[in-house]
């Protein structure tokens, strides 16, 4: 919300996986917050995507997946 207003948007891409679109939505949200100048204040992000949550957050199951992806230079474990 910005000054009591909620922002919403939607988009899609033919052939994209569900995980890809969930991560895209998260990243586009962060970009929009940056455009609005909302990077210097606490934010509460409400997420229901376990893929995004586990990708970017340390959880009781372990560290954020992104930490391992960066260590492997963004390549798969294979």
Number of helical elements: 3
Report the uncertain regions.
none
Total number of beta strands: 0
The first-to-last residue Cα distance is 41 Å
SSE series: HHH
Radius of gyration: 15 Å
Strand content: under 5%
Morphology call: globular
Structural class: mainly alpha
Helicity, as a percent range = 40-55%
- Main sheet makeup: none
Mean pLDDT: 85
Description of the structure:
This protein is an all-alpha fold and 78 residues long. It contains 3 helices and no strands. It is globular, with a radius of gyration of 15 Å.
Brief description of this entry?
The protein has 78 residues and is mostly helical.
Would you spell out the secondary-structure blueprint of this structure?
Elements: H1 18-35, H2 50-56, H3 65-71
Which keywords apply here?
78 residues; mainly alpha; 3 helices
């Amino acid at each position: 919300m910005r000054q009591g207003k909620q922002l919403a948007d939607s988009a899609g891409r033919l052939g994209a996986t569900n995980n890809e679109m969930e991560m895209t939505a998260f990243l586009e949200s962060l970009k929009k917050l940056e455009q609005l100048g909302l990077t210097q204040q606490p934010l509460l992000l409400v997420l229901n995507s376990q893929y995004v949550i586990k990708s970017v957050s340390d959880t009781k199951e372990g560290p954020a997946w992104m930490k391992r992806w960066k260590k492997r230079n963004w390549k798969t474990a294979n």
